[in-house]
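Archive record
______________

***
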Amino acid sequence: MIVQLKTRWAQWEQPLLLLSFVLHPKYRLSKFSSNISNLSYTHFGQWLGYYYQAWFNELPKSILREYLSYQREIFPFNYSTYSQFNENIIDFWESAKGLIPELSQLALHLFSICVNLASVEHLWSSMGFLHTKRQNRLNVSINIYYIELYIIFHLNMF
């Protein structure tokens, strides 16, 4: 059991969980031990740049400067401002869009990731419409043909 947990932990996107703590004004780095050498604002800055580029397909221009303001708790990144939003993290980052567009875009994307089972159940339900009992009786080449048609259709739609 321990081996399986370690394997799953190694495969999981750990920086996203850590960034969700760091970009939460109530927690920041307070939940982490101070003697861990590779958990610093510098490391988090690298992850911010990586995920910004991965999610939005462009190089960040000001995310580190914005992150420095957040780190120093310069308005609007102080706790008193956050508490005015009744600790609603989405409203907090939404309000900061005008001052810090890149960091707020990344934070809103990060905090909008659904981490419960409902999203997974929805995915499996959607797949049920694509993979039917009739398709189970078809041979592999026909199934591949249908999948290719489906992909081509969706690529041309968007």
